[in-house]
């Protein structure tokens, strides 16, 4: 199916945006050097997190431009490599940066076809937050999702299931995408195709709604669902079938199969 998002893009605007991101990357790298010299590790972590976001956005924008999938994956890989640098720095400096190591960094490694890179990122996260110290339920659900993904990648299924059990459906459905992601991890671990199909559809519908509501307006994430693509890659690697033909047509563009193959 022709991706309608690609039909509606303005190529010139996207190229200008990518150039702006490249300039921002240079600034962030200079900031990292300065903050390292100052031993301001909190700001080092913040700027590394921003670098991950920059490379992820370039990957998404290049996908929208119709550039080769190898080029798109190259930038997802670079996003993950910045996350690995930050994870390694966590060990060297005895600092903790999980707040800057987002799920998207791990997903980026998976999309780039480098599960070993994803494992190195999560293995070098020094420690965990005390999840009981968070009053913000949505933030708590997000962190439990990150921990579930970490344990899932490391093959610690029992711990991952425990994390998943702590991801609830929030009262007004804010943050419900974390619940769907957790259920997808569980489905892959348990090879439950019905659970996988149900929650993949719900996650894509959530992404569709967020695009339609304008939440992703002028944000690169509008092009496709990074969690859906990454988790689908893991599912396919573990023997589950991605039934793209059963997904409503309006949602299929948010799950580009060329990134899953």
**Poorly predicted sequence stretches spanning 5 or more consecutive residues:** 126-135
Work out the helix count: 12
pLDDT averaged residue by residue: 85
- Give Rg in angstroms: 18 Å
> End-to-end distance, in Å?
16 Å
Q: What oligomeric state do the depicted chains represent?
A: single chain
Describe what you observe in this structure.
- By secondary structure, the chain is mainly α.
- The protein folds into two domains: 1-127; 129-261, no CATH class.
- Helix content is 67%, strand content 0%.
- It has helices spanning 4-7, 11-37, 41-64, 69-93, 103-111, 115-123, 137-153, 157-165, 176-190, 193-212, 226-237, 249-252.
- The model is unreliable at 126-135 (pLDDT under 50).
Note the main attributes of this structure.
single chain, mainly alpha, 261 residues
Summarize the structure.
The chain has helices at 4-7, 11-37, 41-64, 69-93, 103-111, 115-123, 137-153, 157-165, 176-190, 193-212, 226-237, 249-252. The protein is mainly alpha-helical. The relative contact order is 0.10.
Could you give the topology of this structure?
Blueprint: H1 4-7, H2 11-37, H3 41-64, H4 69-93, H5 103-111, H6 115-123, H7 137-153, H8 157-165, H9 176-190, H10 193-212, H11 226-237, H12 249-252
């Amino acid at each position: 199916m022709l991706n309608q998002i690609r039909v509606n893009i303005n190529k010139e605007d996207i190229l200008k945006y990518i150039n702006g991101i490249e300039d921002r990357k240079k600034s962030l790298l200079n900031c990292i050097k300065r903050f390292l010299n100052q031993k301001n590790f909190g700001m080092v972590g913040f700027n590394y997190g921003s670098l991950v976001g920059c490379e992820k956005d370039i990957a998404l924008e290049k996908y929208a431009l119709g550039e080769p999938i190898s080029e798109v994956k190259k930038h997802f890989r670079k996003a993950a490599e910045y996350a690995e640098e930050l994870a390694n720095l966590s060990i060297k400096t005895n600092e903790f940066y999980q707040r800057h190591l987002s799920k998207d960094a791990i997903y980026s490694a998976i999309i780039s076809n480098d599960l070993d890179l994803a494992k190195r990122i999560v293995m070098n996260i020094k420690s965990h937050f005390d999840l009981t110290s968070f009053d913000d339920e949505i933030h708590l659900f997000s962190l439990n999702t990150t921990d579930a993904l970490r344990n899932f990648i490391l093959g610690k299924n029992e711990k991952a299931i425990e994390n998943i059990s702590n991801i609830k459906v929030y009262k007004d459905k804010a943050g419900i995408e974390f619940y769907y992601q957790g259920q997808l991890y569980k489905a892959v671990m348990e090879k439950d195709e019905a659970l996988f199909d149900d929650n993949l559809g719900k996650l894509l519908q959530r992404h569709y709604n967020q695009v339609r509501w304008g939440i992703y307006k002028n944000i690169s994430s509008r092009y496709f669902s990074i969690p859906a693509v990454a988790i689908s890659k893991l599912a396919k690697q573990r023997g589950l079938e991605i039934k793209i033909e059963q997904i409503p047509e309006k949602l299929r563009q948010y799950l580009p199969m060329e990134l899953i193959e």
